[in-house]
Amino acid sequence: MERAAVRLRGVGKRFDGGVEAMRDLDLSVAPGEFVSIVGASGCGKSTLLRVIAGLVPGSEGTVEVHGEPVTGPREDVGLMFQRPALLPWKTSLENVLLPIRVRRRITHDDVREAMRLLTLFDLEGFEHGFPSQLSGGMRQRVALARLMMTGAGVRLLDEPFGAVDELTRETLNLHLLRVHERTASATVLVTHTISEAVLMSDRVIVMTSRPGTVAAEVPIPLERPRSPEMAYSQRFQELALTVRRALGPSGSEGGRPS
Ligand SMILES: Nc1ncnc2c1ncn2[C@@H]1O[C@H](COP(=O)(O)OP(=O)(O)OP(=O)(O)O)[C@@H](O)[C@H]1O
């Protein structure tokens, strides 16, 4: 069997204050697979990503990336959050080059690759602009380019498009889809939007309310490349409904596995 890019077995997390965010969570993500996580607010989705990223330790269970136990942040794991966290005193190009700069000297090839990514994300002409000169959606695209620049085999995205308007979100989704379909990394996306989860993913994981564990897994057998128009098909609507039902009656309480 192919080695999983990410594998969690029996993972739990209890914070010092006593909050139990996760319990007995099993999850495996194959290389190149796109998995979305949906669940009620506060059910532990961000905690799950932070544990995979090695930013916080789990309290129980094992977490592995590419077959190795996670003991801290790793170079082969890229992260992106809702706020793009760009350095305001650096240009778009410099921000995209940052993950390389912290590791080694920048080469001409690195600059060429960063420029290529900025073009891919429709940021041509803004390479030397500063974050304050960009719109919110453009800043997210710079952050996406930076995530891609790392070439990480595992990408973790925590509600990356939560703070932008609907149309911008659609464009950003398309960008992420295109990049994923070109350079497939194992990707875990936390989102509150069911249609986004279905459009992007090979599999949607529905979490229970806190302490979060896996309530349901919904495979998404739609063909790739995906396009936003697919969201209007009956097949898509059925899949979205399956995810919605697994979330439980109110949407604010995750369904418990029976
Ligand atoms: N550093 C921390 N210390 C103590 N408790 C924490 C910490 N981080 C998160 N929690 C708690 O763990 C629980 C899960 O939080 P988490 O942010 O993982 O949920 P979430 O599903 O991502 O929520 P949302 O969808 O609202 O972003 C919450 O009750 C939260 O208050």
Automatic annotation (TrEMBL):
One matching Pfam family: ABC_tran
Keyword list, A-Z: ATP-binding, Nucleotide-binding, Transport
GO MF term list: ATP binding; ATP hydrolysis activity
SMART domains: AAA
Residues covered by the ABC transporter domain: 6-234
Positions of transmembrane segments: none
SUPFAM superfamilies xref list: P-loop containing nucleoside triphosphate hydrolases
InterPro entries according to UniProt: AAA+_ATPase, ABC_transporter-like_ATP-bd, ABC_transporter-like_CS, ABC_transporter_ATP-bind, P-loop_NTPase
PANTHER family membership: ALIPHATIC SULFONATES IMPORT ATP-BINDING PROTEIN SSUB, TAURINE IMPORT ATP-BINDING PROTEIN-RELATED
Protein known as: ATP-binding cassette domain-containing protein
